[in-house]
């Protein structure tokens, strides 16, 4: 998710990008020592369009990130990651970005990953035709230009898709790891449990 936001595969508003940068610093470096210490190069923390489209200097961006980083001094590594994912979930297009894939028989499909599960579309202009909640998926592996999704059902079932390139596969794999971690954490801590239960009850293996 982090790489997707920085590379602008997922759009992120400037203010949200600053919050996410602060959580990224907390996860990577721990508590801030003082203002702007430490702050890695801003280009590694914010999308290029954020830097290009606003009249702020690098030092001003560093100050904004650092002020939020200082406020996170009591946030643990694990909580920083979960909070990062929680904020990212609300970012425009997060969990709504649709990726074109192909089946073994070279039929075009589209998939998206969100906070509750994996969606498979016959057309990106229509609702998903299949949906698997994260508890139904045991593994999601990207190798070369292919992704393999193993369902947690018996007998064993594996869904395979070809993707445009290895980078897209790794992006999807990263989104899977982050989304499933957030899903598991929410269920464990009973955070937004009503939302999760409602989403699961309305989901089915085959949507009509």
Automatic annotation (TrEMBL):
SUPFAM superfamilies: PH domain-like (SSF50729), Second domain of FERM (SSF47031). It holds the Pfam family FERM_M. Coiled coil: none annotated. SMART domains: FERM_C (SM01196). GO terms for molecular function: actin binding. One of its GO terms (cellular component) is plasma membrane. It comes from the Eukaryota. Residues 1-187 form the FERM domain. It is found in: Cell membrane. Keywords: Cell membrane, Membrane. It is a peripheral membrane protein. Its main location: membrane. PANTHER family: MERLIN/MOESIN/EZRIN/RADIXIN (PTHR23281). This is FERM domain-containing protein. It comes from Hymenolepis diminuta (Rat tapeworm).
